Amino acid sequence: MRNDSIENANTDREAVNPITEGVIWKQLLLYFAPLLGASFLQLLYNTADTIIVGRFVGKTALTAVGGSAGQIYAMVTEFMIGVSGGAGVILSQAYGAKNEKLLDDGLHNAVALALVLGTVFMTAGLIVSGPVLRLAGAPQETMKESVLYLRIVLCGLISNALYNMGASALRAVGDSKRPFRFLLFCSVLNITLDLLFVAGLGLGIGGAALATILSQTLSAGLVLRTLIRGTGRELLPCLDLRVLRLKRDMALKMLRLGLPLGFETLMYTFSCVVLTSAVNTFGTDTVAAYAGFVRIESFYWMLEVALSVSITTFVGQNLGAGRMDRVHRVVRQGAVLMYMFMGTTIAIMYTGCPIWLGLFTADTGVIGIGVDMMRYLLPFYILYVPSGVFFAALRGMGESLRPTIITFLGVCVLRILWVAFVFPAHPTIRALLFCFPVSWTVTSITYLVYYLSFMRKRAPVY
User: What is the pTM of this model?
Assistant: First the structure.
C-alpha cells in the first residue's frame, strides 16, 4: 500500500506541467537559466574563433572571421533557427494540449525538414560564397581568408540545423537543461580545438573553422541520441530515423510559421551585413573595431533570444492548455524580466567595454575606435525590448507573418534606406550607427500598436 501511494504521488507530480501550472516568473527563470547558458555556449563557437584568431593570427584575420564572413554565416544559421522555432511553436502548443499524434508527426517532420534545409543551404552557400562576400563589401585584403573561413563553416550547416531543430523540440516540451549540457561539453571541445589548431598547429582561420564544425557535429549527435532514446517527457515520442517524413500538411504548417520567423532573423542580419559594407569604407581598423563590437553585443542578443524563446514556449503551452489568463501574465512578467536583464547587461557592457574589446585585439587604435562606438550606441539598446517581448508573445500564439512584415519595414528597409540616403549626406561612423536606435524605436511602437489590436481577438490554437 505504501509503495503504491508513493508511486501514485510520483505520477501525480510528473503529470503536473510547471509551465501551465506553476508560478510564472519563477518557472520562467528556471526555464530561462539553462537556455541562457546554452545560448551563451553556442555564441562561444564563433566568439572563440574570433578571440583566438585575433590574438594569435592578427587583425586582418580578425576582420575576415568577425566581419562579413561571420555575419553571412550568422544570417544563414539564424534563418534555420527561425524555421526551427516554427516547429517549436507547434510542438509546444501540442504538448500543452496533450496531443500525442501531433507531437509524433511534428517531431519526425521537424527533423526531416532540418536535414533538407541544412543540405540546401550548405550546397548553395558553397557555390555563391565568393560573390556574396564581394557583394557585402568585404575588404580586398581579407577576401581570401574570408572565403576560406565561410566555405569551411558552411560544411557544418547540416549538423547546425539538426542541433537547432532537436534542441527546439526539447525546449518546446519544457526541457531546456539537456541542450545546455550538450553545448557545455561541445563548447569546451571547440575552445580546446581552436587552441590546438590555431595556436598549436598554426592552421590559422581554417583551423578555427574546422574546430567549429567538429564541435557542432558532436552537439547534433548528442541531441539526436537523446530524441532517439527518449526524453523521459510525458507524451513526447521517441525519434525513429527510419520513419522520417515530410507530410504535406505538417510541412506546410511548419513552413507557414517557421519561414516568417526565419526571414525575420534573416532580414535583421541582412541589414547588419548592409551596415558592415558601409563600415568597410572606413578602413581595416574601423572594420576590426566594429567586428569586436559585434561579438561583444552578441551577448546582449543572446540574452534577448533566451528570454524570447522562454516567453514563446510559455505562451504556446498555456495557449494549448486553454489558459489565456496565464498567457497575459506570461507577457507582463516576461517583459519585466527582460527589462531587468537587458538593462543590467547594457550597464556591464558600457562600463567594461575597453576590457571586452581587449579580448579580441591588443591594437590600441582599434580598441579606441571600438570604445567610442560602444559608449555612443549602447544606451539606446533598451529601446529594442518591446519588440522582443511582443514578437515572442505573438510567435507563441502562432502569429508570425504580420510581425515579420513589421520587422521587414522597421528594421531591414529603414536601415537600408538610411545607408542609401542619410549616411552619404553625413559620412561619419556615428551617423551610420544612429540607424540602430531609429529602427528600434519605430519597430517597437509599431509592435505595441499591432499587439494591442491582435489581443482583442482570440489567438488560434494549432
Answer: 0.71
